[in-house]
Specification:
Helix content is 42%, strand content 16%. It is α/β, with parallel strands linked by helices. A seven-stranded parallel sheet has the order 3-4-2-5-6-1-7, with helices on both faces. Strands 10-11-9-12-13-8-14 form a seven-stranded parallel sheet, with helices on both faces.
């Protein structure tokens, strides 16, 4: 199948050709015809499957077919992070050169000039607005945002937005939109809370699920059994001599860990950078640009911030910790081995989270090779996935001594 089979406008097909798009991905092949029929969609597709194109191309085709710009906000795309909002807007900009579509990203962290640009677009109109929930709410609260003519609402990485606590913000935004609209919800995972949200927002949606539970065949997976105090030494050991790996992405669970890892690597003369919410937006964008252009070999990031990063040819992904959710493992290692390339994904498994890694292996349907630690690191804990540590800080005897919870609440009110 080719993009010409969708009966896209000539100008859009020319844009696709000039940008090197040849054949649609599975999510594009299935989603685009449904969206072109003006139906709502709830789609589950993992990172790197082309879902941004799946929702952008049919919307852009409408603009191209109408051959006219609007003086109002036609399409609102909501994304969880600034990085993802910028990535989507950059893709729109690529097509806008050929189609004349206006778009603007709306996110926090900028100066007064960027705020004024956002205000002008939200009040005067732009074809497409790509926004993070928090900054869009800030504009809405000032009363000048006009969504009265909106035709399309798109939520990208909806599961991550809920994980970040944006449910109420999303509902507040939706309440400002016309009830008659087309709504497209894209998510990397499909937990119950996403299905509940879809019932509130979508009208008789078509459902798509594109192979979420299997890593790409080109990913060579491995894991190391380590104690917590061995991790940073192992990272340094693994990266030594890896000059043939042009792009290495390290995931850590917290900003503190990201900072510690990056400082250690830089202290050992690795060319690395970090990306976390502790940095300004300008610093984060600079780190991403340098990583994309191969001026920085190693990027250390929290999972939430890195989820929207679209960088090709990542050769090595390292999970400093086992992901909390098994499906997140698939998305993380999906950063490598894209487009039929090969890549390596390594995970560091400490003693108390072995059961979580077993859940990952059950999800992907295969056992991940456990690699012996280098001699200079020393042996780690034995792999015992059946062991699940007891929750700390809980004791039945202690609970009895502390009295019933109801009494505690009563005393607190006093």
């Amino acid at each position: 199948m080719t993009f010409a089979d969708f009966n896209f406008s000539t100008s859009l097909l020319e844009a696709l050709s000039m940008m090197g798009f040849e054949t649609p991905t599975p999510i594009q092949e299935q989603a685009i015809p449904i969206i072109m029929e003006n139906k709502d969609i709830i789609a589950c597709a993992q990172t790197g499957t082309g879902k941004t194109g799946a929702f952008l191309l049919p919307i852009l085709n409408k603009f191209a077919s109408n051959n006219s710009n609007t003086n109002y906000i036609n399409t609102l795309i909501i994304a969880p992070t600034r990085e993802l909002a910028l990535q989507i807007d950059q893709q729109i900009e690529g097509f806008a050169y050929f189609l004349g579509v206006s778009s603007l990203p709306v996110y926090g962290g900028g100066d007064s000039t960027s705020w004024d640009q956002q205000k002008k677009a939200l009040s005067d109109g732009a074809d497409i607005i790509v926004a993070t929930p928090g900054r869009l709410i800030a504009h809405i609260n000032l009363g000048y945002v006009d969504f009265s003519h909106l035709e399309h609402l798109i939520l990208d990485e909806a599961d991550r937005m809920l994980d970040m606590g944006f449910h109420d913000d999303i509902m507040k935004i939706v309440n400002k939109l016309p009830k008659k609209r087309q709504t497209l919800l894209f998510s990397a995972t499909m937990p119950a809370k996403i299905r509940q949200l879809s019932k509130k927002l979508l009208n008789k949606p078509e459902q798509l699920n594109i192979a979420i539970s299997k890593p790409a065949e080109g990913v060579l997976q491995g894991a190391y059994m380590v104690y917590e105090n061995q991790k940073i030494d192992l990272i340094e050991n693994l990266l030594s001599g890896k000059k043939n790996y042009p792009s290495i992405l390290i995931f850590a669970s917290t900003k503190k860990k990201v900072r510690e890892i990056n400082q250690r690597l830089r202290g050992k003369d690795f060319v690395s950078a970090e990306i976390s919410s502790d940095l300004s937006q300008e610093e984060r964008e600079l780190a991403l640009r340098k990583f994309k252009s191969k001026k920085i070999q190693i990027l250390v990031a929290t999972d939430i911030l890195a989820r929207g990063i679209d960088i090709k040819e990542i050769s090595l992904v390292i999970n400093y910790e086992v992901p909390q959710d098994a499906e997140d493992y698939v998305h993380r290692i999906g950063r490598t081995a894209r487009a039929d390339a090969t890549g390596v994904a390594l995970t560091l498994i400490s003693e108390n989270v072995q059961y979580r890694f077993k859940q990952i292996e059950e999800l992907i349907g295969s056992e991940v090779m456990k690699i012996p630690n280098p001699p200079e690191i020393g042996s780690g804990p034995k792999y015992d996935p059946g062991h699940k540590p007891k929750r700390k800080g809980y004791s039945r005897n202690k609970r009895r001594r502390s009295g019933p919870r109801k009494s505690f609440r009563k005393n607190q009110k006093r």
